[in-house]
Amino acid sequence: MHAGFVNGSGILLALFSTLLFASNTLIILFIIGGLTAVIAQFTKLIQVNVKQKLACSTIAQMGFMIMQCGLGLFNAAVVHLILHGFYKAYLFLSSGEEVQHNTPQKPLHLTIKPLQAIVVLFFGVLGAFLFNYLTGKGMALNSGIFLTLIVAITVGQVTYNIVKEQSLTVFQKAFLPPVLFISGIITYALMYNGVTALMFDMPMVATPLPISAIEVAFGIVFLIGFFIMKLGVYRKFPWLYVKLLNISQPYKKTVLMYKSK
Q1: Helix (H, G, I), strand (E, B) or coil at 254
Q2: Which among 2, 30, 169, 178 is least buried, having the fewest CB atoms inside 10 angstroms?
């Protein structure tokens, strides 16, 4: 699944970028990729097996990659593909150690104080501006704004995890967020600019689209889904838990599950 769909589909979509533009099917890619990412992330939350968690994470990342293709940013999708390969390799190699050292715990209740919210918002916005500057995207109101939004959310989430960590001092909480997101964004920007340079002779691999009403509506749905996950609202709906658990099971007629009579 990892090599066939994630790596293969990203390369194929980039190669056929002109065909996708000509057939006006990018919005379909955007919606399919976004739904895949949201559903896979929800499904990951209820898994108890580390391999199933990793599989759901890979499916979600595949969805993000397809969503970037749907935004007309095929070069960003290829960068995502490469970086995800390194990240997922680390997760697979460290999964055994993670299982050994972790014990089941009650889910943490998400609370944030006003000052913490201001710090998270500040670093999120600062990270978004740095991302736009280093990648040369600018602040134009096109489909690239969705990538900027995801970067802002990611930086904000990392900042929140740091400011809520009780073992860190006040100085460390103020020092670590900019160090982490600046180094991370610089690394991404170098990779992004390098891949863009390698793909310069391929037509329409970095062509942001004008923002449409469908993209705005789905962006709102995406944000709502993200906060539902982070706030743990899904735990209050047993039917949603059962539904996600069922759709995450292997299909009963696959080679591994099918039993001939």
Answers
A1: coil
A2: 169
* Residue (of 9, 39, 25) closest to 70 by Cα position: 25
Locate the domains of the chain by residue range. 1-100+212-261, 109-206
Output the six-digit token pair for 111: 């609370």
For 7-21, write each residue's pLDDT tens digit: 677 788 888 888 888
- Phi/psi at 30 (5° precision): -60, -45
Total-model pTM: 0.79
Q: H or E segment at 94?
A: helix 74-101
Dihedral angle, C-alpha 212, 217, 223, 224, nearest 10 °: 180
Range with the poorest average pLDDT among 29-33, 107-111, 112-116, 170-174:
107-111
Give burial (CB, 10 Å; 0-12/13-18/19+) of 226: middle
> What is the spatial distance between Cα 185 and Cα 188, in angstroms, rounded to a whole number?
5
What is the per-residue pLDDT for 55? 81
Contacts of 255 (CB under 8 A, 6+ apart): none
Structure tokens at 217: 């509506």
DSSP helix/strand/coil, 1: coil
